[in-house]
Amino acid sequence: MQIKALGRSGLAVSELCLGTMTFGNTTSESDSIRMIHQFMEQGGNFLDTANVYVNGRSEEIVGEAIKDFRPEVVLATKVRMQTADHANGAGISRKHIMQSIEESLRRLKTDYIDLYQVHVWDHITPIDETLRALDDLVTSGKVRYIGCSNFFAWQLMKSLACSDANRYVRFISIQPQYSLVSREMDREMISLCLEENVGIIPWAPLGGGFLTGRYTREEPSSGRLTAKVGESSWMLRATDRNFAILDAVLAAAQELDKTPAQIALAWLLGKKGITSPIFGASTLDQFADNMGSVGWKMPDEIWNRLDEASALPSEYPNRFIDKFARPL
Questions:
Q1: NADP-dependent oxidoreductase domain: which residues (predicted)?
Q2: Which of 95, 161, 169 is nearest to 132 (CA)?
């Protein structure tokens, strides 16, 4: 597995990141630990969790799995969501951050987090308060690097500018939803990250399971897409456009003798600016399937075909700006 630098940092991470949202829920503790160990044996070193995954149980399982080789792991977790039933039990205020880091460290059985991420923007807390608190955590040694997730482009740029102006640590990465069927980040976020050298670690790279090919145009009978609401709900995924993209994925899979999941992940691995797609698995078979996306390169012709099939329509101001682009 290839190793990459994460954003504007010297932090070396594997080209795939193992997501642990299902650990302790649809994935048993024993299978979760086996996945982590197999991931490490196959060259992976990047693990992502969050303090709200399965009410903290995911962090506990990850901590147990890595306790004997903690220095080898790049450990990422998140803060922001509701973790206690009181007014300060959510958000990215100094109070909630300082409480949450201690709880995560305890569950993860470690004294530091490699990448501590803001799970989503907080409209109540000023970003300078958040960044100062995170800067203090880095200074104290409890956190090595910071990142964010689910931000607008303006929110990320405001955060970077605040860090630069106050000499706080900078976000080195962002964790957005991004896949062949969810390319909204192409509008502004991708170009911002390339300009500012912010690493991109996409979540839901398989569109909540849609790109695995297990679903047809009929109503799903099982799986995450049966949810009535949420980013992976059937209402959002089952569109004519998405099924046309899935048809292109299935054709590429047949042509290359790969699985649809491997094709969808390999497309992301070939996308400029993407550092490490975060894949999850509920079973060991799903894990093995996803790991088959590395160790080979998709032919340019097929990659371009998938890219064109999933590209967003040309929109203002991009089409206007591109019209007047100056050649070098």
A1: 15-310
A2: 169
H/E element, 149: strand 143-149
DSSP letter string over 183-212? -GGGTTHHHHHHHHT-EE--B-TTGGGGGG
pLDDT digits (tens, 9 = 90+) for 81-128: 989 999 999 999 999 999 999 999 999 999 999 999 999 999 999 999
Give the burial class of 64: count Cβ atoms within 10 A of its Cβ; 0-12 exposed, 13-18 middle, 19 or more buried.
middle
Q: pLDDT tens digits for 44-88?
A: 999 999 999 999 999 999 999 999 999 999 999 999 998 999 999
Please write the tens of the pLDDT for every residue from 127-170.
Answer: 999 999 999 999 999 999 999 999 999 999 999 999 999 999 99
What average pLDDT does range 235-244 have in this prediction? 91
Answer whether residue 328 shows pLDDT above 80.
Answer: no
**3 state SS of 78:** strand
Question: At a CB cut-off of 8 Å and minimum separation 6, what does 60 contact?
Answer: 24, 107, 108
Strands 199-200 and 171-175: parallel
Calpha distance 249→11 (Å, rounded): 32
Active site residues: 53
Q: What are phi and psi of 5, to 5 degrees?
A: -80, 140
User: Which architecture, in CATH terms, is 3-175?
Assistant: Alpha-Beta Barrel (3.20)
CA 325 – CA 328 distance, rounded (Å): 9
Burial letters 82-104, b for 16+ CB under 10 A, else e: ebeeeeeebbbbeebbebbbeeb
Distance CA 207, CA 246 (A): 10
Helix (H) / strand (E) containing 119: none
Mean pLDDT, the chain, integer? 95
